[in-house]
Structure to design on (347 residues):
């Protein structure tokens, strides 16, 4: 076997997130490449025909694209990016902070992820469809493709003053949380996450907040609310609304109408549910869940009845141990069109 030269590392390309179009003729994916001259990793968004008739086409020219998601008609492709994905912005630091980062800031002075949208039928660059001060942590298309549901932190005026003080002056950090710090996220705070509805056909309108679709929980900064818009019009999401949310990793499954109203809890407060995926007929939601009392145990797929919230039942779906053995955030369970079978996929 020949010796592998060190420079070969820069020829490595790592495929990240993959999304197949609804028509099955194209695949969008993120790929991380390595720029030897700049000594940095660059994550870009690509699209390629599934029949292999063309080479992958690069859609973004700067690093940071993630979460590619197709609209239901296959003509729109949305994704998240922290900066202009085409390098049209000011390359200088917009905050004037220099090269040194305050150890207490946890990177909060960096640009926040926003949702961008390609119209592949019309062509051209993607347009930015959100401008949230706290960024966007997750999103999904409505069944007809004219709206998005997004997840975003929504601080009160008092909370915004505190965040500005911490980010601009470096502290002091004030916390009332038991889970006051999370690896990979930094210091936690009391800012509530909500779901918002964005009208894609009216770019000037403000996102509409769903007041009862709010999150909570010890590790929500990492897990997120995972919004999923179902075929019957309801939106599924995860949250922890127990009496002591910082004292457990439980996450329950909820559904809410996009016209607002009360959120309905569908699970019983005993598992850590994530990655909700609606059955195509709208009768159930598959989740990947783990036992909060046994963290090393493999995650498993559960089917939750979307119309039977009274008993909050969740039925375990038989899977091979190897197919659902990774942690919850690394497993997805997309449905096939028949609504009777799903593919359990490890990332």
């Amino acid at each position: 076997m020949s010796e592998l030269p060190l420079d070969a590392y820069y020829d490595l390309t790592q495929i990240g997130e993959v999304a197949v179009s609804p028509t099955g003729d194209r695949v969008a994916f993120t790929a991380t490449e390595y720029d030897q001259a700049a000594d940095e990793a660059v994550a870009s968004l690509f699209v390629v025909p599934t029949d292999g008739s063309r080479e992958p086409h690069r859609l973004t020219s700067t690093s940071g694209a993630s979460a590619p998601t197709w609209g239901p008609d296959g003509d729109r492709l949305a994704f998240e990016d922290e900066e202009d994905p085409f390098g049209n912005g000011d390359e200088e630091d917009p905050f004037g902070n220099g090269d040194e980062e305050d150890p207490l800031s946890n990177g909060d002075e960096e640009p926040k992820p926003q949702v961008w949208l390609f119209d592949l039928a019309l062509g051209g660059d993607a347009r930015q469809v959100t401008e949230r001060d706290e960024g966007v942590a997750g999103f999904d298309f409505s069944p007809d493709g004219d709206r998005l549901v997004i997840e975003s932190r929504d601080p009160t005026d008092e909370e915004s003053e505190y965040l500005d003080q911490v980010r601009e002056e470096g502290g002091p950090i004030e916390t009332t949380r038991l889970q006051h710090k999370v690896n990979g996220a930094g210091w936690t705070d009391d800012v509530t996450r909500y779901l918002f509805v964005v009208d894609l056909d009216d770019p000037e309108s403000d996102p509409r907040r769903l007041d009862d679709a709010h999150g909570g929980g010890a590790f929500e900064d990492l897990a997120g609310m995972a919004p999923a818009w179902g075929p019957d019009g309801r939106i599924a999401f995860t949250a922890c609304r127990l009496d002591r949310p910082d004292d457990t990793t439980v996450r329950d499954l909820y559904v809410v109408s996009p016209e607002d109203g009360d959120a309905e809890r569908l699970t019983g407060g005993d598992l850590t549910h994530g990655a909700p995926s609606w059955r195509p007929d709208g009768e159930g939601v598959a989740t990947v869940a783990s036992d909060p009392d046994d963290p090393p145990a493999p995650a498993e797929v559960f089917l939750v009845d979307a119309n039977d919230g009274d008993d909050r039942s969740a039925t375990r779906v038989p899977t091979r141990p190897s197919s659902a053995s990774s942690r919850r955030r690394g497993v997805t369970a997309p449905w096939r069109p028949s609504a009777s079978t799903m593919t359990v996929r490890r990332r």
